[in-house]
Amino acid sequence: MPGLLCGQHQRVSLDKPKPRWYLLQVASKEQVCLVDGTNMFFRAFHALPPLTNRSGLPTGAVYGFTSMLAKLLRDGPDTRIIVVVDARGKTFRSEIDPQYKANRSPTPADLVTQIPWIKKMVPALGLPLVEVSGVEADDVIGTLATQAREQGCSVDIVTSDKDMMQLVGGGVQLVDTMQNRVSREPEVEKKFGVPPAQVIDVQGLMGDAVDNIPGVKGIGEKTARRLIEHFGSLEKLYDDLDGIAELGLRGAAGIRKKLEAGKEDAWRSRLLATIRQDVEVVLGDFQREEPDLEALAKLSAELEFDKILADILGPDREPVAAVAVDLVSPDTLLGLLAGPEDGALCLLSDDDGEACGWSSLEKTVVCDSIPATLGAVINATGAGACYVDGWGHLCHRLGLAAAGTTVIKREIHDLRIASYVLEPSRRGHTLEALLRDRQGLSLPDPESTIRSDRVGLMARKALELGRVLIAEVESAGLDDLYRDMEMPLVPILAAMEARGIGVSIAALEAAGAEFSEKVKLLEGEIYAIAGEEFNIGSTKQLRQILFEKLALPTKGVKKGKTGLSVDADVLARLAQESPIAEKIVLHRTLSKLNSTYVTGLLSLVDRTSGRVHTHFNQTVAATGRLSSSDPNLQNIPVRTEEGRRIRQSFAARDGWIFLAADYSQIELRVLAHLTADPVLVEAFRAGEDIHRRTAAEVYEVDPVFVSADMRRQAKVINFGILYGMGPQRLSRELGIPRAEATGIIERYFQRYAEVQAFADRVLEEGRERGYVETMLGRRRHLPELASKQPGLRQAAERMAWNSPIQGTAADIIKLSMLTVEKRLASEDLRADMLLQVHDELFFEVREADAERLGTVVREEMEQVVPLAVPLVTDLKMGRNWSEMS
What pTM value is reported for the model? Predict the structure, then answer.
């Protein structure tokens, strides 16, 4: 009989079957989580860079797998979590077919080395680890899932293995934690075309190349799905092979012959694909226990995992030291802030009201309201540093955003900005997220905690964490970036948000009505061409109309798991030849404009001031770029008539005018500077048309013979090179054969040889250091450069190549915002900076001052940093945004 490994790795005999009364051992409605351990640590191994400890022991898979388990522990404190792995040795499937899984590559040596550590970590976390010889982990999971389902439990199976889809239903679902994806019955039917119970029948026909399950030779996935969808099972299919002719399948006679010849393979393949649900394991035997802290501490030391007790056990496991809090009056708080002590200020605002906390090493105080003069005290006193969670929010709340350039005497440190400078790829930089991820702590639930205690704790922790973050910024050599660029930019962005930009509600409503009418007309025209009404927004229905009913050409169309793509790129190409595709593209564009910008903007306009106040996100983009949200004012289309109608609704105040200063081809100029390529540098210094110059170089003609089409193609090439575009993408963009696209790229790098040398140097340094950096020292960490997964590694290589260029351009526009704002404060100019849109600064200025503003802005933007090539700005003016396009 097979053996069972569980708990602390003691082997348990299964010679005597367990009685069926185990149904009473698990409470009804309990949540059970079955982790496909083999699947998950293989994925962790391939997803993470090859981490090692000082002795050279590989640890990446252990780290990734343990982090996933830690999240499950935190998210489900009452969930029964069971980890199941494959046992060593052959299984019953090898006896059915000796070729089963015979084509699989050997397990990588670096992963084999880590398996024993994974088997130590799971029980140390208090979780049962189950492996049964003679069967696979799938069979154990199938059995435990069935038992749990029979007991009325809800079951999550953590895996990415599609074979597990046959187990879905009745409270059982698959959860892919890495992709944040859940598979229930609808997802199974979308994948296989049949309900979960019939998945094994489809697999019996189509086989599985990964597991070397043969299936019926010549029967692919589409045909297998169609047959089982119609007949319901292999048995019914083989009982009625004559019925295949009724399906209208192309080559029905040939399909029948293949099925007859492959009958034995079909039955054997279904048997191989079927997950057993009768393994002699009992759900009630596997209980979750308290983690073994001593064992975890030992593992932490051996594997060199920093903060393992906090990161692995989660915030609820790490006790938070109580903070003695004094409730004080607003005047007392102001007195402390004006004093000499180094303190942390924490501002909170929620549905329960507002509170303000301050902490030093000696004391922590909380005021149950925000003093009205708090901003003046922060602004006027030069006491110790103040650590703040969200300086921009504080600027808004305290009225410090009014001028934007107000001199702040106190040294302010923003935890979010410091974290962003250190780790720009992090998803969240709030105090809660930083305390959770860096210290393993969790702030108390505001609904179950005395408010003053929570605010006081936040202030104390902000002080402790802030000092650590600033020390890390300094030790990493990022102090100039943090102190001289990002922090001074915060009040400027707050001021821009506070100013907002004027919007004509009447113009927006008129545009919305016009768009809605056009959408209705387009729908009628699309239905007429299609010969029927359908949901234009449905990918499935659109695919059926375009490729099945209308038989539009599919050459070059990507095919995903659900069928042929109908994404924007595909429709744009089809639109060149197909009237219906052209109308669908316009329908999508108008619908998005109407919902995103007309309806969205109307809901966000301040009806009193007639202005809309976007939010500039300073800690989101890993490249250092600013983004805009609520509403996003950086992505309004500029080249379409509809986009210009939206922009027309943004209008300057009476007597004022808009002025925009846009850097000309800044990323290409940065490329020339960073690479020091003589051809690029010469072209920009001579004021040449860089796209015409590139066309002359790659097409090997004199610049005077470059046609408009050649220049257009060169423009695609220039910007494509910036973003790591390869031959396949260039072929598609230019509509040329791939071989020709390959030749163009080769000639580009022959002519611009230093560009290729720079790219090679960036990648080499990135792999060595784990990050790339901009001209001004902004770093982007890219551990995926060392990934063994080609897709991850290649994506990281494209980011590594582009980030120094795009990031330097982002740094330059930020520096320009600082210098321009400082200059405006010193000049007698009635002008306000309102927006930053990629490489453009957008102002509202009194008409009488517009010309002088243009001169000031151009001077500052073009002289902000010394480059090997000139920085050039283009100026545009208009009473509304559309006039400036």
Answer: 0.67
